[in-house]
Design goal:
By secondary structure, the chain is α/β, with parallel strands linked by helices. The protein has 14 helices and 11 strands.
Length: about 375
């Protein structure tokens, strides 16, 4: 008898880490937000309340941070790429080639930034990225090279290409010896979190979220979220939950083992999360500041994307992963224990970070 793809997972791929809300770290630089607000296309992305979902999942309020249009692109990645390139090229003269590996969104953001600043871009993509994703990157003026391998293989090849004297590697994952530029990318994402808190306070009268749910690839956005909410010396500290594809759950596996590990990845419609190794820069923040991690199936993410679309929020599979992860955590066998681990009750406020819009997906099954 075949497995029902809609049946709840038992046991659910999940891990929880007590004490994360007490951990503290240094904040991101304050001038990141000033840099972004000075950009010509800057505007805060919407924070949309979805009361139907809150009722369905037994919490007080659910908000979705809608990153379907950020600085002219259909995903949040431009925040990190723009700030990192600004820092990396400060005081540099002449035309350079910005090199990166990508499943789509980050590479397109680097290519767009390079074009706007008068530089070249060389973007390497792993095998299987949809042709329309490649075309969108190329349309920004970038040279695009397909690597016959995984995302991790593309990253290794990009590092080799960037050894050229006129090249700069702008990669959104870190490894020993390459952490400064990935750190700037993480800093750039802090603007998203600052907007969330301002919008909750100004439009919803909420002091702050009780839970923030983040999709994870190598963990850079998660690192930014951990940094933002764990850098406050006092005040409310929300629970933080990360969500990955079951076929590429490197953060969940690393947290379970207590050390960063690589996993073998498989095909997933959550292509932007199809990463097999956590960023070395992110790992200390993930291991100390995350409350929990969960992995979801493609069917869960696809259903969540459809649900968000029905509720008026444009979201692709990666952007919908937080809803899929929240639903998995709060339903099925063991849900009461998972609610307790996240500190959730009937009045809790939850924020889902929908990191990409449906326009980032050339077709169902691929993300940019």
């Amino acid at each position: 008898m075949s497995e029902n793809p809609d049946a709840p997972r038992d046991p659910l791929p999940w891990t929880a880490r007590p004490g994360a809300r007490a951990w503290r770290c240094a904040p991101a630089p304050a001038d990141v937000r000033d840099f972004h607000t000075a950009l010509p296309d800057y505007a805060p992305t919407p924070l949309t309340e979805l009361p139907e979902l809150a009722h369905e999942l037994g919490v007080g309020r659910i908000f979705v941070k809608d990153e379907s249009s950020r600085l002219g692109l259909p995903a949040f990645k431009a925040l990190g790429a723009s700030w990192a390139v600004h820092r990396a090229l400060a005081g540099v003269r002449g035309t350079l080639t910005l090199v990166t590996a990508t499943d789509g969104n980050h590479g397109r953001a680097v290519a767009r930034t390079a074009r706007l600043l008068g530089h070249r871009a060389h973007v390497l993509v792993p095998r299987g990225v949809h042709p329309e994703a490649v075309a969108a990157i190329a349309a920004e003026g970038a040279e695009v090279t397909e690597v016959q391998g995984t995302f991790d293989a593309s990253v290794r090849r990009a590092a080799e290409v960037a050894e050229a004297p006129d090249a700069v590697l702008v990669q959104d994952t870190a490894w020993p010896g390459y952490e400064r530029i990935p750190g700037w990318i993480v800093e750039g994402y802090s603007t998203l979190c600052a907007e969330v808190d301002e919008q909750l306070a100004d439009r919803a009268g909420v002091e702050g979220p009780d839970l923030v749910v983040v999709p994870a690839g190598v963990g850079s956005l998660t690192q930014a979220v951990v940094t933002y909410y764990r850098s406050r010396p006092t005040g409310h500290a929300p629970a933080l939950l990360t969500v990955e594809p079951e076929s590429a759950a490197c953060v969940l596996e690393s947290l379970t083992r207590g050390e960063p590990v690589s996993v073998t990845t498989g095909d997933t419609i959550m292509a932007g999360l199809n990463c097999g190794t956590p960023s070395t820069l992110a790992w200390p923040y993930l291991s100390a500041g995350l409350d929990a991690a969960v992995a979801v199936r493609d069917t869960d993410s696809a259903r969540a994307a459809t649900r968000l679309t029905d509720l008026g929020v444009s979201s692709g599979p990666c952007g919908a992963a937080p809803l899929a992860g929240l639903r998995a955590a709060l339903t099925g066998t063991g849900a009461d224990g998972r609610r307790a681990a996240l500190g959730l009750g009937p009045a809790s406020v939850v924020v889902l970070l929908s990191t990409e819009g449906s326009a980032a997906n050339p077709q169902t099954g691929r993300t940019l």
